[in-house]
């Protein structure tokens, strides 16, 4: 079992920045990948950004150039740095992990609200 705990969400004005953190309960260095998804009511959960074991990153077109995913293996934590936030970025953001055996885990989610 892997527990994922997100933090860092909140209310921010358009154009502002936030950094989300996802702390894992075990060593993330062996995970096949970790990712951030987001979901708004009535819509499907969508992939925002992912990072593989070899540090290859991938981003949704809507966040390219504004969001950066990174990981700190020593802290077993993955981050999502978000800048130039827009109202349409408002969502619950979820951390996701796939272990070396391809077991999938989700965090409980953290709310991000972009509003003036």
Are there runs of 5+ residues with pLDDT below 50, and where? none
**Largest beta-sheet characterization:** 7 strands, mixed
From N to C, what is the helix and strand string?
A: EEEEEEEEEEE
The first-to-last residue Cα distance is 40 Å
Q: Give me the secondary-structure category.
A: mainly beta
Counted by DSSP, the helix tally is 0
The best one-word shape is globular
Strand content: over 45%
The overall average pLDDT, rounded, is 96
Please count the beta strands (DSSP E, at least 2 residues each): 11
Rg value: 13 Å
Helicity, as a percent range: under 10%
Oligomer: single chain
Give a verbal description of the structure:
There is one protein chain. The chain is mostly beta strands and 116 residues long. The protein starts with a strand and ends with a strand. Strand 4 and strand 5 form a beta hairpin. The protein is built from no helices and 11 strands. It is globular. Strands 2, 4, 5, 6, 9, 10 and 11 form a 7-stranded mixed sheet that branches. A 4-stranded antiparallel sheet has the order 1-3-8-7, with no helix packed on it.
């Amino acid at each position: 079992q892997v527990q994922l705990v997100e933090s860092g969400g909140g209310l921010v004005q358009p154009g502002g920045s936030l950094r989300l953190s996802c702390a894992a309960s075990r060593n993330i260095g062996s995970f096949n990948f970790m990712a951030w998804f987001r979901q708004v009511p009535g819509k499907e959960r969508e992939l925002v950004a992912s990072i593989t074991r070899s540090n290859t990153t991938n981003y949704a077109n809507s966040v390219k150039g504004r969001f950066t995913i990174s990981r700190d293996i020593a802290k077993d934590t993955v981050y999502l740095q978000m800048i130039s936030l827009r109202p349409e970025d408002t969502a619950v953001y979820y951390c996701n992990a796939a272990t070396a055996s391809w077991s999938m885990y989700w965090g409980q989610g953290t709310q991000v609200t972009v509003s003036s």
